[in-house]
Fold:
Amino acid sequence: HQVVCSREKLFCVTTDGQAWEYNYASTEWRNLKALLPLSEVEGLELRVVKFAVGVTFAAVLMDDGRVYTLPSEALPVPPELGSVADLACGHEHGILLTSTGQVMTWGTALRGQLGNDNVDTSPEPTEVHALAGIKCVSIAA
Structure:
């Protein structure tokens, strides 16, 4: 379904939503089920929809619209913005597209890559000010 690579690891999502990681140094595959909330609700199995990787981190989009960074830290997206529809990562930053068309960024902004006219690092997703009120349909890093 999807394969993405970082400098140190390869991540795969299978067609049935399983998540796998391959570490180049150890040459080992690891099923990420233990690191991700794939069965938070009894009888409901959440699936990984997409991986996005930067140099310093990886993030996954689940089929319920939530995003987690590895290892398994939920990103706080304000509920009024809706669930996450797409995810992308740059070198040290992430980009989210919500189901309502808003674009949010987080991470390191040393070169202004968060899109908010400053170089302030943001530990959690914040809306890109220049795109406020515009319904976006696609993102990329």
About this structure: The mean pLDDT is 85. Residues 75-141 form one domain. The chain is about 0% helix and 40% strand. The CA atoms of residues 90 and 141 lie 5 Å apart.
